[in-house]
C-alpha cells in the first residue's frame, strides 16, 4: 500500500495559496492545508484497493434473471484538473450458476473505483470488468451519469450538462431486448 503523505500535501497547498497571491497564514485559511490533506486522504482512499475484493462474498441463489442496483451516488476527482465530478451509477447483471453477491457489495465496488483520480469512462469499464471477472455472470451492464466541475465551473462553463457512459458485457452486448429492459428500468 502506498503511504499517504499528508505533510507533502499540506506543503503543496501552502505553495498554491502563496502562488495565487494569498497569505497561507491568514485567519480564514491557515488551517486549509491540513483540511485539504485530510480531504484528499478520504477522496483518494481507493487508489490501492482492488474492487474485486468486495465481490468475493457470494450466495448460492437459483436466480438467473436481472439484478439491478440503480442510482448509486458517487463523487470522484477528474484526473485532468483535480476537480470533482459526481453523479449516479446504475449496475445490472444476470447471475450465472446461482452466483449472486450482496447488493451493498455493488455499491462498494463503485465507491472503491471512484475514490481515485479518475475518468468517467474508466469508472464505467472498471466496474463492469470487475463484476465480469469475479462473478462470471451471463452479462453486465453499467451506466454512469455525471456532472463534471471541469466543464461547469471552468473552461466551457456549461452547468447542468451531464455525461453518460455505458459498459455492456456478455448477453447485454448481443441481446437488444435485455439491454432495453435495463434502460427502461433505469428510467423508471
Radius of gyration: 20 Å
Strand portion:
25-35%
Distance between the termini: 41 Å
Strands in their spatial order, largest beta sheet = 5-2-3-6-7
Supply the number of helical segments: 7
* Broad structural category: alpha+beta
User: Helical content, roughly?
Assistant: 25-40%
The quaternary organization reads as single chain
Low-confidence stretches: none
SSE pattern: HHEEEEHEHEHEHH
Number of strands: 7
Q: Shape, please?
A: elongated
The description of the largest β-sheet is: 5 strands, mixed
The overall average pLDDT, rounded, is 96
InterPro entries: GTP-CH-I_C/QueF (IPR043133), GTP-CH-I_N (IPR043134), GTP_CycHdrlase_I (IPR001474), GTP_CycHdrlase_I_CS (IPR018234), GTP_CycHdrlase_I_dom (IPR020602)
GO molecular function: GTP cyclohydrolase I activity
Family: Belongs to the GTP cyclohydrolase I family.
Protein name: GTP cyclohydrolase 1
Summarize the structure.
The chain is α+β, with helices and mostly antiparallel strands. The chain has helices at 6-19, 32-43, 103-114, 120-135, 149-152, 171-174, 176-187, and strands at 58-60, 67-78, 84-94, 99-101, 117-118, 139-148, 163-170. The strands form two sheets. Strands 5-2-3-6-7 form a five-stranded mixed sheet, sandwiched between helices. The protein has a two-stranded antiparallel ribbon with strand order 1-4.
Structure description:
This protein has about 190 residues and is an alpha+beta fold. Helix content is about 40%, strand content about 25%. It is built from seven helices and seven strands. A five-stranded mixed β-sheet has the order 5-2-3-6-7, sandwiched between helices. Strands 1-4 form a two-stranded antiparallel sheet. Strand 2 (about 65-80) and strand 3 (about 85-95) form a beta hairpin. The chain is elongated and about 60 Å long. About 30% of the residues are buried. The mean pLDDT is about 95.
Amino acid at each position: 500500500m502506498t503511504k499517504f503523505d499528508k505533510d507533502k500535501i499540506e506543503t503543496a497547498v501552502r505553495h498554491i495559496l502563496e502562488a495565487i497571491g494569498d497569505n497561507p497564514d491568514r485567519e480564514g485559511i491557515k488551517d486549509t492545508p491540513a483540511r485539504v490533506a485530510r480531504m484528499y486522504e478520504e477522496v483518494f482512499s481507493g487508489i490501492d484497493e482492488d474492487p474485486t475484493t468486495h465481490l468475493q462474498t457470494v450466495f448460492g441463489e437459483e436466480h438467473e434473471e436481472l439484478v439491478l442496483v440503480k442510482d448509486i451516488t458517487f463523487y470522484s476527482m477528474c484526473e485532468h484538473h483535480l476537480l470533482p465530478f459526481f453523479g449516479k451509477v446504475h449496475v445490472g447483471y444476470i447471475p450465472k450458476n446461482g452466483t449472486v453477491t450482496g447488493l451493498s457489495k455493488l455499491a462498494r465496488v463503485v465507491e472503491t473505483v471512484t475514490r481515485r483520480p479518475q475518468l468517467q469512462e474508466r469508472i464505467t469499464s472498471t466496474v463492469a470488468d470487475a463484476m465480469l471477472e469475479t462473478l462470471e455472470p451471463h452479462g453486465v451492464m453499467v451506466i454512469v451519469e455525471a456532472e463534471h466541475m471541469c466543464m461547469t465551473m471552468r473552461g466551457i462553463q456549461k452547468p447542468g450538462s451531464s455525461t453518460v457512459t455505458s459498459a455492456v458485457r456478455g448477453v447485454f452486448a448481443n441481446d437488444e431486448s435485455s439491454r432495453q429492459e435495463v434502460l427502461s428500468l433505469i428510467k423508471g
